[in-house]
Design brief:
The protein is α+β, with helices and mostly antiparallel strands. It is built from 10 helices and 16 strands. Strand 9 and strand 10 form a beta hairpin.
C-alpha cells in the first residue's frame, strides 16, 4: 500500500484525505491538534505544525512516504515542496513554492517575465510609505497570507500608514505589500501541471465585498467570458506559472480584467483554490476529479485530464452582507441544484476575512443558478 503525507488537517484538507483513503492509500496527516478535523480520518495523525518542515521531513523519512501534498494552503505548500525535494518526490521545487508564497518575490518574477501586474512596493515599516506618491486608492496586504487577512483599500496617506501597520502585524515575515488598485472584473483560474506541462481546467467568476477587505461572497463556474478571453487568460496563466517555476500539481491564479480589456495578474498560488473552488466546483463543472489529480501528481502517476459534459457550478457564502440567502438555507431541500448546504453559525457578521462567514451552499446546474 502506498503511503501519502498530507500537510494540514483543517476542513480544507478533508477532501484530500478522503480521496486518498478512497483510492486505497495509507494517509499520514501533519498539523496542530487544534481544529484538526482530519485527525480521525487519516490512518496516522502527527500533532506537528505545518511550518516545522525539518521535523516533518524526519518523520516522513521514517514512514517511507511515496508522495506528499496539500490543497488550498500556501503555507503548507512550501513544506510540501521542501520535504519532496529532500526525498526526491514529485512536487514543485522549494524555491518556486517560496516565490508563490511571497507576494513580493512573486511580483518580481512576474515583472521579469513581462507578465502584466500592478505597480508594487514591499515595506517592513509604515514610515517607508511616506514617499509613495501614487494615485489613490491603493491596496495594502501582507506579503505572505491568504484568506483576505490584513487586506485593505486605502484612500489617504494616513489610511495607508495604518493599513501597512495592520498588514505587517498579520504577516509571518513582517512585510506588507503596497499595490496600485486595478479596477475590473475578478476571475480565478485553476490549472494542474505535471513535469512542466500545464493543463487548464476552469475559470471562476468571483464576487467579493469590494472595499475595504475584498472577501469572497460567491464563486461561479465557468466564468462569463468569451472563448477568446478564455484562451488569452489560459496563455497568460501558463506564462506566469513558467515565470515562477511552478511545474507540478495544482495552481490557483487570480486576475482582474479592466474595463478597457487588459488582463492583469493579481496573485498566483502554487496550490488548489480554496473556498471549494478546487475541491468541489471544478469537478462539478467539468467532471474532472481535481483532488485525485493532485494525488496522482504527488505519487508521479498522473494522466492527462479528461472532461465530461460541462455544467454550471458555484458557491454562495452566508454572512450579514448576504442575509437574503437565509430563505434558501432554510428550504434548500426544495432546490435540486443545491448539492451541499451548511450553516455553521446562527450569528451573521459583517465580514473582514473569510473566517467571518457563517455558512455556504454549493450548487450544480445545467443553467446559470443566480440568487436575486
Amino acid at each position: 500500500m502506498k503511503k501519502i503525507a498530507v500537510i494540514g488537517a483543517s476542513y480544507l484538507q478533508m477532501p484530500l484525505v478522503r480521496k486518498a483513503k478512497e483510492v486505497g492509500y495509507e494517509v499520514h496527516c501533519f498539523a496542530w491538534d487544534k481544529d484538526a478535523v482530519c485527525k480521525d480520518l487519516a490512518d496516522r495523525f502527527y500533532p506537528i505544525s505545518i511550518t516545522e518542515k525539518e521535523t516533518i521531513l524526519e518523520k516522513c523519512r521514517e514512514i517511507g512516504i511515496d508522495g506528499i501534498c496539500t490543497i488550498a494552503s500556501d503555507v503548507a505548500a512550501t513544506t510540501v515542496a521542501y520535504v519532496a525535494e529532500k526525498m526526491n518526490l514529485n512536487a514543485n521545487s522549494y524555491e518556486s513554492a517560496c516565490k508563490a508564497n511571497n507576494k513580493f518575490l512573486m511580483r518580481q518574477a512576474l515583472e521579469k517575465a513581462c507578465v502584466p501586474c500592478p505597480r508594487y512596493r514591499c515595506v517592513t515599516d509604515s514610515d517607508q510609505v511616506s514617499d509613495i506618491d501614487w494615485v489613490f486608492p491603493l491596496i495594502v496586504k501582507p506579503s505572505d497570507r491568504s484568506g483576505s487577512l490584513g487586506v485593505a483599500k486605502v484612500f489617504t496617506p494616513e489610511e495607508l500608514k495604518n493599513a501597512v501597520k495592520t498588514a505587517i502585524g498579520f504577516s509571518f515575515k513582517g512585510e506588507a505589500m503596497v499595490e496600485e488598485f486595478v479596477e475590473g472584473k475578478e476571475i480565478s483560474v485553476e490549472f494542474i501541471s505535471y513535469h512542466g506541462r500545464h493543463y487548464p481546467l476552469q475559470i471562476t467568476d468571483k464576487v467579493t465585498t469590494e472595499a475595504p477587505h475584498f472577501v469572497e461572497l460567491e464563486h461561479h463556474q465557468p466564468a462569463d467570458l468569451s472563448k477568446e478571453t478564455f484562451s488569452h487568460v489560459y496563455a497568460l496563466t501558463e506564462k506566469a506559472l513558467n515565470s515562477l517555476g511552478l511545474t507540478e500539481g495544482a495552481s490557483h491564479s487570480e486576475f482582474r480584467i479592466t474595463p478597457d480589456g487588459r488582463i492583469v495578474v493579481m496573485e498566483i498560488g502554487g496550490r488548489m483554490g480554496g473556498d471549494f473552488i478546487g475541491s468541489d466546483l471544478v469537478q462539478l463543472s467539468t467532471g474532472y476529479d481535481f483532488v485525485k489529480g493532485v494525488i496522482d501528481v504527488a505519487i508521479d502517476s498522473f494522466q492527462e485530464p479528461t472532461f465530461k459534459a460541462p455544467r454550471y457550478s458555484g458557491v454562495y457564502f452566508l454572512c450579514e452582507e448576504t442575509k437574503k440567502l437565509l430563505p434558501l438555507f432554510n428550504s434548500h431541500e426544495n432546490y435540486p441544484e443545491i448539492k451541499i448546504c451548511e450553516q455553521t453559525d446562527t450569528e451573521l457578521r459583517n465580514i473582514e476575512c473569510s473566517a467571518d462567514r457563517s455558512g455556504y451552499f454549493i450548487y450544480q446546474s445545467t443553467d446559470k443558478f443566480k440568487v436575486k
